[in-house]
Amino acid sequence: MLDRRFLLTLAASFAPGLALAQGAAPAQPAPPPLAADDPRMAERSAGRADAPVTVIEYFSLTCGHCAAFHRETWPRVKSELVETGRMRMVFRDFPLDGLALAAAAVARSLPVERYEPFISTLMSTQDRWAFNRGGDPREELFKVAALAGMSRAKYDEVLADQALARAILAARVAGQQEHNITSTPSFVFGTRTVPGNMAFARFAALVAETR
Fold first, then answer.
1. What does each C-alpha distance from 32 to 39, 104, 188 come to in angstroms?
2. Distance CA 168, CA 187 (A)
3. What's the per-residue H, E or C state across the chain?
4. Cα 61 from Cα 103, distance rounded (Å)
5. What whole-number distance in Å separates Cα of residue 8 and Cα of residue 16?
């Protein structure tokens, strides 16, 4: 089970006032939860809704193994399995730190059609924005968001949105409980959870076994 203290620390690193001090009154009232139909928390996926196989990917945008999958395997999965109608990929956030949580919030605040290209760009340039020793990672993240069409005002608004951050963390907890996710990336093929990065051949074989 995910440690509650860890999630509170993760939330606190996203924006001031998100976490409550252990055993103390909140520094400020918790924000109201997002509406159940908030479009930012709607499913993000690639592929036909009626594809015969659905694969769920749990990922963190600051995870090096996730980045490797998206650089080395996802392009072939997308072109050979998704775009040909053989499978659909559902993307689910599993942020491992505050920066990944911020990036997930930004991705979900973009128009739906820009979501997959944006996270693919973040994965392929992860060393430049997430691990840039000479710069502020959140400023580097904004540069990528700006290329996707997000204004500075909107970016700042997203990073200050505590309700959105809490919703993403709640979805992370739900994923851990539903599919026993303990690391990233993890993939769910039907009812089978498979952790770890993998080459295209193994991924395609698991898709074939799921049909």
1. 16, 20, 32
2. 18
3. CCCHHHHHHHHHHHCCCCCCCCCCCCCCCCCCCCCCCCHHHCCEEECCCCCCCEEEEEECCCCHHHHHHHHHCHHHHHHHHHCCCCCEEEEEECCCCHHHHHHHHHHHHCCHHHHHHHHHHHHHCHHHHCCCCCCCHHHHHHHHHHHCCCCHHHHHHHHCCHHHHHHHHHHHHHHHHHHCCCCCCEEEECCEEEECCCCHHHHHHHHHHHC
4. 7
5. 11
Task: Compute how many other C-beta atoms are within 10 angstroms of the C-beta atom of residue 99.
Answer: 21
Judge contact between 159 and 102, C-beta under 8 A: yes
Query: How many CB atoms within 10 Å of residue 28?
Result: 11
User: Are residues 98 and 162 in contact, defined by beta-carbon separation less than 8 angstroms?
Assistant: no
Number of Cβ within 10 Å of residue 137's Cβ equals 18
Task: Give the number of other Cβ atoms within 10 Å of residue 143's Cβ.
Answer: 12
Q: Which of 62, 141, 132, 139 is nearest to 94 (CA)?
A: 62
Residue ranges, the chain, pLDDT below 70: 1-28
Token pair for residue 174? Answer: 């739900």
Relative to beta strand 88-93, strand 54-59 is parallel
Q: Are the beta carbons of 62 and 104 closer than 8 angstroms?
A: no
Residue carrying the six token digits 């959140």? 138
The predicted model scores a pTM of 0.87
